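Researcher: Please translate sequence to structure tokens.
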Amino acid sequence: MKLLAKKHPLREQSGSTFVETLVGTAIMGIMFASFFTAMSSGFSLVRVARENLRATQIILNRMEGLRLYNWNQLVYSNMIPEQFVETYYPLGTNGNNGIVYHGQMTITNAVLNPSSDYAAGAMRKVTVEVSWTSSGVERRREMSTYVSEFGIQNYLFNN
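Model: Translation complete:
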């Protein structure tokens, strides 16, 4: 008895053609490129968020330092520097300071709307601005507050 080998149509088509392999490789390449682009964008976003947070920390540090000055030191002396520079790089070694933050502190007369007699001579507006360059982009943060000669409590309870 002679066995005849049957041809299986599925077995003949079970392999993939060159075109199918090429299309699959292209799809995988696009997926990997998208993945790496997303990772790169995510790391950039985290870096910018860290830089913004550090700028806010610098501003708050300067604002909190105002508490150490009395009214005469704040208004009539030059004890508070107008310009300052701070650097930040958490892993900095061998003189690598990382990002350089340039700051400016401005103390001006307070202009309130509606106007108040108290604000004319006994209140100042303090503005702290920090700027830095990151990846070729100039970035800036600013914060303002008011300082009064006799404290805010006297202003609220006497007027």
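Researcher: Any highlights?
Model: Strands lie at 83-88, 99-109, 123-134, 137-148.
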